[in-house]
Amino acid sequence: MGRTTNYSTEKRTMILEYLKAHKDESVSVKDIENSLNSNLDKSVNVTTIYRYLDKLSNEGQVLKHTSENGSKSTYQYINPDKLCHNHLHMKCTSCGKVMHMDCSFMDEFMRHIFVHHKFTIECKTSMIYGVCNECK
Amino acid sequence: MGRTTNYSTEKRTMILEYLKAHKDESVSVKDIENSLNSNLDKSVNVTTIYRYLDKLSNEGQVLKHTSENGSKSTYQYINPDKLCHNHLHMKCTSCGKVMHMDCSFMDEFMRHIFVHHKFTIECKTSMIYGVCNECK
DNA sequence: TTGCGTGCAAAGGTTTTGCATGGCA
DNA sequence: TGCCATGCAAAACCTTTGCACGCAA
Description:
By secondary structure, chain A is an alpha+beta fold. The first copy, chain A, folds into two domains: about 1-75, Arc Repressor Mutant, subunit A; about 85-130, Ferric-uptake regulator, C-terminal dimerisarion domain (Dna Ligase, domain 1). Helix content of chain A is about 35%, strand content about 20%. In chain A, a hairpin with a 5-residue loop joins strand 4 and strand 5 (about 100). Strand 6 of chain A pairs antiparallel with strand 7 of chain B, so a sheet runs across the interface. Chain B binds a DNA duplex through helix 3.
């Protein structure tokens, strides 16, 4: 969790702002690229996006998920105060929204898994897919 | 679920037997390829493996998962009598073993998610990662 | 000035597709 | 015989890496 040097650059600001603006979703590199490069004068290279996302992911500021039936990873900004390693996440396969399962039942669930299935869940990399209320 | 024509060929038998022999794990195409092609006289092409896995996946005979921090998919054979769309699965990131969470608590969990989070889980594509008892 | 950030091109790895051939039913 | 299965090569993607240059501190 050691905070490394963190230059503030225009490109990084653009990427981070996109992530913050879409904090309810888990977005792909393509999403970011397409959005940022619609402003033709201010473009960001894919490599830069990958590297910065990787950095943010290591610092715990975004969650990285590699899932669904493409081989594409998606990334989601998380509020610094959210303890995302303590609860699971549910992603709507229709609209892409990601919900935090941060309720008391989560603890019960983890305990059950641990006691009855002898399995220690790693929330950070797990993702539950399904359909949200609005999309039904 | 409509059963399509299903030719029985030597290659398919080889692949299916490998899957059955590793039904506790979710295996990659590379795994299958490497294993089958250690018999130098009887080799199977990667394309064939992909196409057959795709077919089996559509028929519901294997679960396809695209996860973890590589962009690799893994596949797991499931017994025809297992109702894998009714429960979640837990995969050990260390040994690759996949456990079926088919217990009564699962229903309770699904109900909680549905009632309190207004979210309908799709078990087939979801995967919970963590570490199993033996690997701890 | 120093070291990190960025872009470009190229490479690496996984998965898909087109096409001709082979093989089951 | 009529399809489907297979292999090969190539293409399509996503992601990573090397290297030279740019830029924040």
